[in-house]
Structures are given as C-alpha cells and as structure tokens.
Protein 1
Amino acid sequence: MENTAITAPAEATLPRTGPPWEHPGPTGPRFIETAKAILLLPTATFSNMKRDGGWGPPLAFGVVGTTIGFAISLLIQIGIMALAPQTSTQQARPLVSLYVFMFLLLLPFILALSLLFWAVVYHACLRLLGGRHRFETTLRVVSYVYGSTSLLQVFPVFGGVIGFVYSVILSVIGFMRMQEVSKPKAIAAVVVPLLIMLFLATAAVLTVLGAHGVAAAGHVAL
C-alpha cells in the first residue's frame, strides 16, 4: 500500500482574517475587541491581520483611538486647571475654552496627518531594510498600534510614557509579522526615526534658546 504523507499547510499560506474592527458588527464592541487584541495579544493579532483591504478602516481606527486618548489627556489637564486658584486662572478660562474647542474640531484631521506622516517615515526605513510589502501594510501597523496605545492615557501622569514605550514594542512586533523583517531590522526601523526626530527637536530648542540668549544680551548691552 502506498504511503501518502499528510502535511499541515504552512502558516504563511493561511488566510489572514483579522482584525475584529474590519468585520461586520456594532462599532463599539469591534473597536474594544481590536484594541484589546493589539494590547494583550500583539503577536497573534498581527500574524492574523490582513495586509491590505483599503486605507480607510485602519486609518479610522487610528484616528478614533488617538482622538480618545488626546481627549482623555485634555480632560485631565482641564481638571488640574479647575483645581488651580481662581485668582490666577479665572480671566484666562474663557480664552482657554475657545482654544480647546477649536483644537478638538481640528484634532481628527491633525491626527490623521500624523499617522500618515509616521507611516511614510517608517515605510521608507522598512524599504531600505528589506520590507516585503507595500505602504498600506505599514499604515495598518501604525494606525492599529497608535490607536490602541493612545487609550493608555486613561492612566494619569504615567499613561503617556507607558503608551509611548509600548507603542515602540508593538510597532516592532507588527513590522516583524506584517512586513516580514527580522527583529533587529524592525527595531532599527522604529528606533532610528525616533532618534532622528529627537535630535532635530533638541537642535531646534537649543537654537531658539540660543537666539533668545543673544537677543537678551543685546538688550542688556543697550
């Protein structure tokens, strides 16, 4: 009798069906389940996440999540301001309220542009390091990671720091599973742009402070 070897299909050939956000159903539960999957089961979630299917769903998730995170952070800041002495903040509160309202109106557009910007930066690095898939795949990682980790702003004081550190970790996992690059390359694709941005921001601050110091010295001399 002829022996017929039966082998299981390779994991790479299995269809990717996730995340829950892109399945039919009520918006709230789909959003919560997707955020939980990203935060708690990132390896399995990114291994099952579709690499294409349109920019709209992942970008919408990212905008919703980051908007909620910023809103939570803003409410915390407003609460702190409300506890400040009346004499120091009473006159400024109407103007602050106007600025907050205008900022919230523009916030989704600002955050969408921010997600696209970081996706472009990361994708450029990934292409140099051997990323195998197109820009939409990178955008999906960025949108789902940032949309989920922004929710950690619910924790006062340290929520932003925790969210930032965890977003770096999740981005590395996401790029490994979605762009099929090695762990060192995924780390480089995430960390190098952040270091460059930090260097540019530091240089800009030092330049402004230096210009201010020169102007102040000139004023004293006069």
Protein 2
Amino acid sequence: MTSEAPARVAENPGDIRIAGRRVLLAPHNCFACGTLNTHGLQLALHAADDECWTELVLDSRFEGWQGIAHGGIVSTILDEVMAWALVEHDLWGLTARMNIEFKKPVPIGAPIRGEGRVVSARRRVVEAEGVLRDAAGNILATSTATYVAATDDRKAELKARYELAFTDEATASAALGTPGGAP
C-alpha cells in the first residue's frame, strides 16, 4: 500500500497494466480511470490472473460525511476494478447489475485497495466480484456485478476509439515522451 497520501488520488493517473504490460489508451474522460477528467479518480489499475486491483488514498473532494468516502465513490472504485478484470479476457462490458455491501466506513486520507475478479463468463454475460480493503486488510465493502459483454463489432469500435495497445515500460515511455511512461 501507499505509505503517504499522494498529491493526486492515483500515483500514476491513467497507468493501467494487464499481466505486467502497460495498456495504452487515448486520453479519455472516464470518471474512474480517465486522464482528462480532472475531477475524477484517475485510478492506476493493474490486472493479472483474472483479477484487477488499484491502491489509492481518497482526498476530501470524495467525502460524504466528514472523514468518510461517499458511497457512490466506493461503488465506482468497485465497479472499475471488476470491469477491468474483464479486459484481461478481451471482454469489454457494461454493468447490468451491481450489489454492494458496505461493511465499514471508508476513510478519507488513508490507503485503501480495491480488488475485482471474474467469477464466471458465459456467452456475453460475465459475473464478477469485488472487495475494498484498508491498509490492514480489513474488508470495508464487497460487491458482485453482472456485465453484458460488447459484441465483437462494438468491441472493435471501442478498441479503435480508445486506441487500445499493449506495450512494455520502455516502449510506453518512448511513445508517451515521459520518464517512466506516466501520461
């Protein structure tokens, strides 16, 4: 986990990795992972072995009650890590249904980790589950979700629109013109 609160929510906004390879996407406005949304979470996501995870520290702009993250933000983090777990399987999907159990308040200003994984995939229906933990590993929230996978044509459109590419760190740094590959 992150040892201190970063200046921004994500350490490397837009830094998405799958199976150790960096995912390159055109800049986009997604509230959860987009680099263009200055009000968003800008999550740094990682995926491997059917799972996706992110580690972050929420600042006060995501507060509900004082010192506690808004439930919608908690839901967004869980939805994003579950949805990106699908991408490792070359599935792109829309959330059809999502259930969340809030176990403990999610603190503002403290390290948390969101994890999502694919539970099953059949035809175009994908089931996933997620968990949000604090730095000690305590469960703060859990979630299950059903995603409807995009058709092959729609998936091709999305890949083209977002300019999806996979690359290693050295290639990413050169392509983005930044040290370490951070956008």
Protein 3
Amino acid sequence: MTEKTFEDALHHLEEAVNKLENGSLTLEEAMTSFEQGIRWSRECHQFLEKAEKRIEMILKDEKGEYTKTEFIDDQTDCL
C-alpha cells in the first residue's frame, strides 16, 4: 500500500472540485463528489498541520543558533 502524500490528497481534492465545477453531474454524483472533496480537504489540512508542527520544532539553542529537534507524530492515522 502506498503512503498518501499531501500532493496526492491535493490532486484528489482538485479532481472533486473540477467535477463539481463542470456542472454536468447528477445530484447524487454531485453529492458524492462533494463528500469526497470534504474528505480530501480535511486530509490536506492534516498534512499542513503536521508540517506546521515540524516547522515549530526548529528552536534556538543557548547560543541563539537554530537547531532542529525530532518531531514525533502522536497520531497513527489521518482519517
């Protein structure tokens, strides 16, 4: 099984949005695309939150120099 990436999730979100913007879907197809878009949007948001946490882990040491500390992800799955 391939690990999901932010780029994969964003691609799926863009596909869902494009289908909705096309305007040629039935109501049921539009609802399904909307639901998928919401799911992919949440997944993208989670990737961005993790990236933000990693960025925040860059700290200044006693000398005023930046050092990087390891980020330990406490969430085992995204959705």
